[in-house]
Write a structure and sequence with these properties.
This is F-box domain-containing protein. This protein has about 475 residues and is an alpha/beta fold. The protein has a domain at about 350-469. It is about 35% helix and about 20% strand. The chain contains 19 helices and 16 strands. It has a 16-stranded mixed sheet that branches. Helix 14 (about 285-295) links the parallel strand 8 and strand 9 (about 305-310).
């Protein structure tokens, strides 16, 4: 069957690299269409690239990659061998680069003692690189470091840069003595040679330093991920409204209430904020207040994800209580444009924020663990745009669930426990408006006389597809 080239090109947009690889071998016409898709995104740890980079003829791989180097836009590297192959291909048009490394780039004493401007010139000058660097031993850790930064700095068009450590961070610190050399290299390398970068994630315990330097050297950055064992920056190191372009901020470890306050003041135009754990020092402090205060301060935030840790004992002099921090810069009753609210607490506490939900009419995604009846009613009456919901009900409320399905017409997924609905309601409820529902967790009331095992099987039902509506 012959397909027009235009249709094949549209099909290529939705295929994975493995499919692209298969279709390039189908015929000459398909090879012409799917080859650009195949080479635009390379991940050396996934198929088909994992097999290609470890082929029986490894000498041919660099030449093959070099032949298609102008097509490569997104690159993910998982090992030093692949890094050397990529460097040989002389890629210069990358938009996205993700590298997983075994070593801490800044742990080598030789690297830390270099003259930073001279070193940067060495990495970016083709002639000097060929004469002085390629002769180094490829098994040397310092050579691996040079290879990595050579690849980074010779792609000035990078929009997205992620340099991640494959270890568990134990035993790795970014700054051995002298600290100034490592800081100077990292800041100068990124701010001088990568002017187009908009997303940054570097996992060598340098998150604090980079976060505090965003306003000085990375004013065009829109997304930043803080990676490391802990968040340890001083709140006073972030000036209010120091960065107006940052839209997405992620902390992959816990932060304190004081640090949270400093972040909100420093980056007032955040649209997405994700925090693994927010540590509060008060004995009891409800997460509803944390969310309220955050939304009041960030009027354009559309995604908030966090987990709240309640410390049972105050640590005198170490941290101030979140309840003493004034985030309240706007009326609490005004609607907020938040579209995604994700509370990933693992303590199993009930989310009782019905007053907060009434402020979120534009909510599209909601993940809040356990909710009570009042919150379900608030969701039903307010969140008409909801598409993805995950919650468990504290107590059975079949009528409330039916009203929820009748009200949220855009709903595609509703997952969680305690969704008890009688079987006849699935059939006799014509007012259910969510005709596009794809995934639904429900629990049917047990039939009289069923055993405990039979009840367990009967009450754990997931429906996929909308044919049952």
């Amino acid at each position: 069957m012959n397909f027009p080239t235009e249709i094949l090109s549209q099909i290529g947009l939705y295929l994975d690299p493995a499919s692209h690889h298969v279709y390039t071998a189908a015929c000459h016409e398909w090879r012409q269409v799917f080859t650009p898709y195949l080479w635009s995104e390379i991940d050396t740890g996934a198929q088909p690239w994992k097999s290609i980079f470890r082929s029986a003829s490894p000498a041919a791989v660099p030449d093959l990659l070099s032949a298609h180097r102008r097509r490569v836009r997104d690159l993910t590297i998982h090992d030093v061998e692949s890094l050397n192959i990529v460097l040989y291909a002389n890629l210069r048009d990358l938009y996205s680069l993700r590298v997983y490394t075994r070593h801490n780039t800044f742990s080598n004493p030789d690297f830390l003692s270099v003259d930073v401007p001279m070193f940067l010139n060495l990495l970016t000058n083709d002639e000097k690189w060929d004469n002085h660097i390629r002769s180094k031993d490829g098994e040397n850790v310092f050579y691996d470091t040079l290879t990595l930064w050579r690849l980074v700095l010779t792609n000035p068009g990078l929009r997205k840069l992620e340099l991640l450590n494959t270890t568990d961070h134990s035993g790795y610190t970014i700054f051995d003595d002298p600290v100034e050399s490592a800081e100077s290299f990292l800041v100068l390398a990124l701010s001088r040679y990568l002017l187009a970068v908009s997303h940054l994630e570097i996992g060598w315990e340098c998150g604090d330093m980079l976060l505090c330097e965003l306003a000085r050297f990375f004013l065009n950055l829109e997304s930043f991920v803080h990676v490391g064992r802990k968040v340890d920056f001083r709140p006073s190191s972030l000036l209010p409204s120091c960065h107006l372009n940052l839209r997405v901020l992620t902390f992959e470890n816990q932060i304190t209430a004081d640090q949270m306050r400093a972040v909100l003041f420093a980056f007032p135009r955040l649209q997405s904020l994700s925090i693994q754990t927010l540590t509060c020092t008060a004995k009891t402090f409800p997460s509803i207040d944390v969310i309220q205060k955050t939304l009041n301060f960030c009027p354009i935030l559309n995604r908030l994800e966090f987990s709240l840790e309640q410390r049972q004992h105050l640590i005198e002099g170490a941290l101030s209580q979140l309840s003493t921090i004034d985030f309240d810069l706007g009326p609490k009753k005004e609607p907020h444009p938040l579209k995604a609210l994700i509370n990933s607490d693992s303590n199993g506490e009930c989310f009782t924020a019905d007053s907060l939900i009434t402020r979120l009419p534009f909510l599209v995604k909601l993940d809040v663990r356990i909710i009570n009846v009042a919150v379900l009613v608030a969701i039903t009456t307010t969140c008409k745009a909801l598409e993805y919901a995950r919650f468990s009900l504290e107590a059975p409320y079949p009528d409330g669930l039916c009203q929820f399905f009748a009200s949220c017409s855009r709903l595609k997924e509703c997952l969680g426990d305690g969704h008890i609905i009688a079987a006849e309601d699935l059939i006799t409820r014509p007012e259910w408006a969510c005709v596009g529902l794809e995934k639904l967790d429900i629990e049917r009331p047990p039939c009289p006389g069923t055993t405990a095992h039979g009840h367990q099987v009967e009450t754990s039902t997931r429906l996929q597809g909308s044919s049952f509506l």
